[in-house]
Amino acid sequence: MAAKPAYTLKVDGVEGLMAKLQSDAILAKPMRRAFSRIGIQGKTAAKLSAPYATGALRSSISTRMSSAKVPTFVAVVVKATRNGFSYPRLIEFSPKHHHVAWLETAVTGIMSGISTFLDDAAREMEREFAKKGPSL
């Protein structure tokens, strides 16, 4: 039986490419900035849409971003409770309270604007990648 030929592939510049991609400036900072802007939009929309009685619901709205170096998500978090129960969940899903889907509607309303923030991040990444040296 004949031996299978062995192949070696050498790609010049791989180390440089990997070093460029590890830079915070190229991926992490633009994505963190984009996710932060998306979170602010979501939080603002949620606060504007939240039913208001005492202000406790609106004041409990915040954001939480992925702790990864390059973030993978941002969440709108609502932590208000009433009598030990999750008040946001109660009014989001209970028709009895006449505010069904207030949070879903608020967050869905900002979805069309998210692409602007991600496009800005992509342009920033391209600029930073170009600064790090010649094309590979």
Overall description:
This protein is mostly helical and 136 residues long. Helix content is 56%, strand content 10%. The protein has helices at 14-22, 24-49, 56-59, 87-93, 102-131; strands at residues 61-65, 74-78, 81-82, 85-86. The strands form 2 sheets. It has a two-stranded antiparallel ribbon with strand order 1-2. A two-stranded antiparallel ribbon has the order 3-4. A hairpin with an 8-residue loop joins strand 1 and strand 2. The longest helix has 30 residues, at 102-131. The radius of gyration is 23 Å and the shape is elongated. The chain starts with 13 loop residues before the first helix and ends in a 5-residue tail after the last helix. The mean pLDDT is 83.
Q: Which strand order spans the largest sheet, edge to edge or round the barrel?
A: 1-2
Number of strands: 4
Please state the oligomeric state of the protein chains shown.
single chain
Q: Judging from the principal axes of the Cα atoms, what is the shape?
A: elongated
Low-pLDDT stretches: none
Q: What's the rounded overall pLDDT mean?
A: 83
Enumerate how many helices there are, as a single number. 5
SSE order, one letter for each helix or strand: HHHEEEEHH
Distance between the termini: 41 Å
Question: Approximately what portion of the residues adopt beta-strand conformation?
Answer: 5-15%
Q: What structural class do helix, strand and pairing data support?
A: mainly alpha
Helix percentage: 55-70%
Major sheet: 2 strands, antiparallel
Cα radius of gyration in angstroms: 23 Å
